[in-house]
Amino acid sequence: MRRAPLRLLALAPLLLAGCGDWIEYEGGAPAAAAPAVGGDALDETLAEVAQADRLDHLIWQGLLQRYVVVDGPQTLVDYDGLAASTEAQVLLTQYLALLASVDPTQLADAAEVKALLYNAYNALTVRGVLDAYAGDPGWSVSEGAFAFFKTPAYVVGGVTLSLDLLEHGALRGDLAHRSVTSADAATRATVLSWFEAAGGEAGFDPRLHVAINCASLGCPNLVHAFDAPRLEAQLEAATAAFLDAPTKGAGPDGVSQLFTWFAGDFERGGYTGKADFIERHRTEGLSGVDLDGGLDYSWQLNIAP
């Protein structure tokens, strides 16, 4: 029996000012954001989350709308403003507690799982930056041979993992990636079960590379929270925006290094390669695109001045 989506009440003024429209779910009430509560009330809420099969992500959406700044083809994050706001820190902590509590395999469908995993990657990346950059705008996720992505410092679905394991295991299902092969058997099995819950190989979608943000200027932009009812439209818009940006996605000077690093992914999910992917999703197709060129990929931190 399909349960109605978990309904959580928004209390914080920050969220009420930034979360936008309510999301309508088929057959259920509109879902709102998790409450700014602590102690027993928070524990009860998280226990309810653990049993939910549909989730909203309005806490995350509210934070993004408040702290993401559009600067031409880039979106930048006001990490300093986020770090300075006690209210924002509480909301982010509570959203991460939600991510830690929910079991992706219990969600209603693949769209719910993908939305959860995309949002988890992006929210944990922001949390990681806040913990690591210490106010230095020159800091980069590339420091220490990209240890930022390799360190198992995050919890999703009760599992402690690295951002690499979340990306390459849960989202890409890459059994040969070092983050997957080096995980203990139980963790590996759990993370790969999330990949299957998200559709497995049959449901693989290379647009995941546009959905997740690596806190760097070369990345596809961090724009909004993903939610299952609008996931297809959100992915389409994000992919077109990325490919239409000639200095980030595709243009006369070449294409993103993502098409080199993950070339095989663009031959999965019904695509035949980068040309097919770009032609389908770029507004002007392949017109004016140098498929043989590679754009510089900047690892400079995407911090708002």
Structural class: mainly alpha
Mean pLDDT: 88
- What would the principal axes of the Cα set say about the shape? globular
Strand content: 5-15%
The termini sit apart by 50 Å
Instruction: Compute the number of helices.
Output: 14
Please give the number of β-strands.
6
The percent range for helix content is 40-55%
Instruction: Give the SSE string.
Output: HHHEEHHHHEEHHHHHEEHH
Structural overview:
The chain has about 300 residues and is mainly α. It has one domain. It is built from 14 helices and 6 strands. The strands form 3 sheets. It has a two-stranded antiparallel sheet with strand order 1-2. A two-stranded antiparallel ribbon has the order 3-4. Strand 3 (about 155) and strand 4 (about 160) form a beta hairpin. Mean pLDDT is about 90; it is low at about 1-35.
List the SSEs and their pairings.
Blueprint: H1 13-18, H2 39-50, H3 58-67, E1 68-71, E2 74-77, H4 79-84, H5 86-101, H6 110-132, H7 143-150, E3 154-156, E4 159-161, H8 163-171, H9 178-181, H10 185-197, H11 208-211, H12 231-244, E5 250-251, E6 254-255, H13 258-261, H14 274-281
Antiparallel strand pairs: 1-2, 3-4, 5-6
Helix pairs in contact: 2-5, 6-8, 8-10
What's a concise summary of this model?
This protein is mainly alpha-helical and 305 residues long. It has 14 helices and six strands.
List keywords for this structure.
305 residues; mainly alpha; 14 helices; 45% helix; 6% strand; globular; disordered N terminus
